[in-house]
Amino acid sequence: MVTKAVNAVVEVQGLHKRYRSRDQWAVDGVSFALEPGQALGLLGPNGAGKSTVVKMIIGLTRPDSGRVRLFGASPGDAEARAKVGFAPEDPDFPKFLRAAEVLDYFGRLLGISAAERGRRIPEALKWANLAGERRHVRHFSKGMKQRLGLAQAILGRPGLLILDEPTADLDPLGRRDVLAMIVGLKAQGTAILLNSHLLSEVERVCDSVSIMAKGRILREGPIHEVVPEGRSLEEVYMELVEATSPRRESNLPGFIADDRPPAPGVTT
Amino acid sequence: MASRSVAVATYTLLELARRRLLLVFVLIGLLVTAGIGIAPLVIPGSPTGEDRTLFLLNSLSGPVQVAVQLCALAIGATVINHDLDSGAIVSIFAKPLSRLGYAGGKFAAAAFVLALLVAIFAGGSMLVVAINGGGHMGVLLSSFAAIGGNALVEMTLVMILTVYLNNIISAVILVAFTSFITFIHQLHSLAQNHQITNALADAMINFFYWVFPPHLVSSLQLDIVQTQLRLHPPGTTAAGQSLLSSVPSASSDWEIALWFAYFAVICVTLYLAVRRKQV
């Protein structure tokens, strides 16, 4: 795993963040770097601090301390931000707009020319299986919003694509398309930061992983180094994460085990 | 930055144009205006001549002001809050768009729609007065300028509140605030006319009057009362003076200048609220 890269697309050093002074650190000393064409899987249980790291990278949240460099500039730099594609978890969009209008709006925010938007938007909509969709976004299903979220993330041909749970609401075909897209973009030199709970997907498309819990990176490196021969990423992940917190009981709630009254007509 | 701000404004306008609630408020306002205009033409024994104009001016000012205020609340309470509430703001702020560009684009679109609605109501009211004989057009126009100015402040304040609060709660707070300001303004008018003689009460009224954004007042009400006194003189001059002193006078140049200063502060506050918002 690279922690100091010469041509880093994104470089994060010693990030710290907590939302209130009495809270625990949401992010506690996270550092990593990502080079063009690399895919990094950011893994961890809910509340590990993955989304906070992502928000600090794209400038949505300010770190308490530490440094983020995006294409060599600060996250607030408009030129650097234009090179980032971001598909947030549970994406949503202005609710009275249509899919094509959302892409045109976001394309204009990215500074894409009208002619180029005219070429890219129909292709992006077709890829997202939303071509010809005339309803307003407020009538979209979660899966449709997720596909639109991915379409807007790739619209600017990003140098860095940040995907936060990109396949959570997609059907198997949609998932396949997203994984194929990640592989294709990687081949073209796009750096990918993938934040996902689906470890099998991470194993398929990422070169390296950072496993986080309680705001800290527990282990990081190329997948073949993090996952020893004969073990799976899931096993390593479970072992590391469970070591940071008491093992969760997987027993069913007591009321499930209560005797049920027999169904009518059934004799016991 | 300007082109990105224009993109925000353009698509905000498109969204506002698709808001049915706004359309309902506008339609109700226009229907009430038309109803008030038609009533004197069809109801036997209705006032005639300048009395009819006064009747129309009196009848129109209330409903139109309410309709404009409702539109201002409907715009202000949703224009930023919809993006925050839905989470769309995350995707928007991830783009190379400054917070100033976002706030500016949103405000420009909202202010444009509000100005358009005020113009529609003003046009409708002037048409109604014109088909009933006309007169007092200048003062009617100035009353819409005051209504528009007050609505603009209310809309911007509710936009600020919705950065932090639910939009319904923001609208309720704003309605309470507006009622308070209007009440203070009426008390101030009484104090100015020496109808409140207690020094402490006078000082408190003055304090509240100057510490909050001025509520713009046109000369419409004063004009109506002066015309009524001319058409139907009271028994004594003192009675006429007493009637006039109960009517709030139009905002002075100094009050209008102060309104602009307060409005500038409110706009800066809107920008700072959006700038500091962590999503």
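Chain A has a mean pLDDT of 90.
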